[in-house]
Amino acid sequence: MTEKESEKEEKGSSDELEVINHELNKDFLETTTFHGLVMAYHASNTPEKIFWISACTIGFGLLVSQIFLLLSRYSTHPINTIVTRHYADELSFPAVTLCNFNSFKASYIAANNITESQVRYFREMFNVVPSYFKLNRSQAEVQQLDAWIDSLDIMQFVTDAAFTCEETIRFCQFSGEVFDCCAEALPVLTGHGLCWTLGVRTHSNGTRYSRFAQYFQSSDAGLSAWVNVHSEDYTDFYIPGSTQDQGIRINFHLPHSPTTVDTDGYAVPPGVHTYAYLDVTKYISLRSDNWGDCVNFPLPHYNVYSYEACVNNIIASEIWDQCHCRLIFQLGDTPTCKPKDMITCVQPFASDQLTDISVQRESYGCWNPCEDWKFQVTMSYSSLPKSRALKFIAETLNITGENARLGNQQKIGSM
Known about the structure:
The chain has helices spanning 3-31, 35-41, 46-75, 106-111, 116-123, 139-150, 154-161, 165-168, 261-264, 307-323, 339-359, 387-397, 401-405; strands at 91-92, 95-100, 169-174, 177-179, 186-190, 193-198, 200-202, 208-210, 213-214, 223-228, 248-253, 266-268, 272-284, 371-383, 409-413. It is α+β, with helices and mostly antiparallel strands. The strands form four sheets. The chain has a six-stranded mixed sheet with strand order 4-3-10-15-13-14. It has a five-stranded antiparallel sheet with strand order 5-6-2-11-12. Strand 5 (186-190) and strand 6 form a beta hairpin. Helix 10 crosses helix 11.
């Protein structure tokens, strides 16, 4: 093959490749969704072609610049959640529930000829969890005890046997202003028996709200109360399911929410001055119409939704379905569970199911409230003054100096 023939063959191959490239470019420009290039390709004159090429070039430049800006911003690790601190002019004070560790006065038990066996049997009505100490009773004894329980007005018995508000809470003040502790104190039944809730008022529609507001942080700006635990009137025999401690249990909660003193209560011994510092955190959750899952609707026996109220209602409903009764401290007008119901039905059911309700609350319909408050409590203690203050304490609380000396009093203050 001569040199001229070789050059001719290479030129033919080059022309063929050029034709193929032209066809491919033509197909691409006719089918692409990059509409600017399509318009430039089909332009009927040079100015129109220049316009569309310029538009495509500018658009591509803007695209590159935006990618560069986004990558630059991403490399700075930006934070798109901003937390700001707002200082409120005032804070609504929480409800405070006080419970004496002793559910029944020894003087009442003796005056009404009630036996230890009857008190123990009655106390089992409060025990959701079976007591470790099992009491063996004959069938005849159980029948006698059931007959005695049936003859009682249960709520009246609990009220009469417990310490009254006036006997328990002797002196109250808020931010230096003295007020009648028991004029507005609300009685509430819990696993500890009859308790008292302070700092709550009730609207005409039944909704509860805070009675007090605190305007500044100080040991004298909160609630202060003198409490008499009446150690001298404690029952001196063991009651299964009941503690033998002396003192009170205290719980801080929202006014519209049921107390959780059984699980979240703080124990306070007699003869001390207790300081309770509250760190309040407010949580606001998104509603379902704003990508959230919070709920806010009234519940049976509760005008305002709370997680605690929802769980209480679920537990009450489950116990009713299984045992056809309600716990003595649950709200409602259905028949109250008797000790026999507690032993044969409620306690076995509770051991298996109640923990499941608390853990899998959402499957039972108990979602987070749209607005919730959490109270983190820090408590410290100091001794009450001795002889120099006995006279003042005795006169203020209307007790003998001997009772004050024995340390039956507690001062709950600086909350």
